[in-house]
């Protein structure tokens, strides 16, 4: 029973660390969010923090996984209110509010192309999961008549992910790039001819 209690406390502390890390990185940026700062945010030493994750790279991969889970939960909560594509567009739009997390994703994903990198497995799994989920949604929308029947679902899913990743790089280079608008333009290409125009994102005040 004591071991189970210790495990539960460990899981809770890990979640606390990830929640704090999301906030710190989003606010300070990936380059300025040191392990020491993240540790101080949850009252741990650097060694104590890494005890829960192993390495800095594994910690940052876990932060990105937590962000994905939060984004997916938000989309699932609105299923029925917005389309799958609109939910994805809104997620891309929100990314512009957390530049530090975009910096983390872009840098870590590039480093993780090395199979020996601690975060390689995370990004490989993320790509497969995204492709599978989106491909299933595309086939469902094809059955509903909201996506062109001649679209290859798996290929389209991969192109959507590639576009989103590439736009994040372009946005870091030039913050005037409107990622959500460009993603919307890509998704419109998948719709049957004659579909009503998608609503434009609300103008910023």
Automatic annotation (TrEMBL):
Residues 34-53 bind DNA. One of its GO terms (molecular function) is DNA binding. InterPro entries: BetI_C, Homeodomain-like_sf, HTH_TetR, Tet_transcr_reg_TetR-rel_C_sf. Keywords: DNA-binding, Repressor, Transcription, Transcription regulation. This is TetR family transcriptional regulator. Gene3D superfamilies: Homeodomain-like, Tetracycline Repressor, domain 2. Transmembrane segments: none annotated.
